[in-house]
């Protein structure tokens, strides 16, 4: 497929959507729309897409969701949090959501509602981190911004209960283009926890093209958990853009279980010294699945720390990609950055492409990176079997122990139990 065909694919999606409004958002959308023609095709010649083929995706005919769908047939997800937002086909559903007693002038609403309210903070921050000219899919999301999550926590406020967000799909038989656009802004000394669930029904085909911009100001703290469990026929692309101020802390964990093709990109940078970025991930990949993680961690301020730990569990003919890069500028002295990627292959037909990278221009740093690809230790299996444990149960125990190293960093007990249950359900379906 050539660039002209790709542009036609994107242009047709834009044509099916509502025209851009005549305001600042319209200018943002129109600029991204204009960039669609000049952006290169995401193909293997580009390093960022070397292992992530999108030919099959670009051959799909998707229908943009131009208005909020009918949600009467859907049930409200289970959540104990007083702050629960549900998006159906990328649109906020008030009937399925619950937002009770927000403290300290916290803003928690949909992007669509914030636009109607003329929220000045939305105009100030939206689109400042995500560069629409970066690739075709970022431009497409920006060109069609209509709804998503908007969270603003003002200075000194601690949002004690987590904000839980569910992305659901309607009963539509069409292959839908779903494009939530999220903005999270935490002011100085504020604190919040956000949990995102990406869910899909059975084998429905759709393209979930998500962008999240996270702005943390000085001393702000955000715990951010993301559970990707899309439909077996879904294409999932999630781009997270993070900027951290002085002494801020970001704790992010992504668990990837579902989707036909699932890719998550992290782009992190710093706007002040002594900030901490803690990223962890677990991907469980089986037959007819691709799970892809790309990290671009840019240390452009002194004395900042980053930890990136990602683990893969592959079975059947599952395929995974991990491409992690840490860039340390010359000004970023006293950087401490550690990157690891481990992969456990349960079958010979599974495949992983892993490429951790360090690019360092400072001379007073503590940095390391590493990767492993291996199989279960036969001696460990033998030891458990000698204690009367069946081979399949022994395999499950070792896999759970391997994945536990990531899951145990989930600070919320109920969410940690959900993650372990989802992992156990997958392991129980493994062939003998």
TrEMBL record:
Q: Which InterPro entries match?
A: Fe-S_cluster_assembly_SufBD, SUF_FeS_clus_asmbl_SufBD_core, SUF_FeS_clus_asmbl_SufBD_sf, SUF_FeS_clus_asmbl_SufD, SufBD_N
Q: Where does the SUF system FeS cluster assembly SufBD core domain lie?
A: 174-401
Boundaries of each SUF system FeS cluster assembly SufBD N-terminal domain copy? Answer: 22-165
Q: Name one GO biological process term.
A: iron-sulfur cluster assembly
**Which family, according to the similarity comment?**
Belongs to the iron-sulfur cluster assembly SufBD family.
Name under which the protein is recorded: Fe-S cluster assembly protein SufD
What gene name is listed for this protein?
sufD
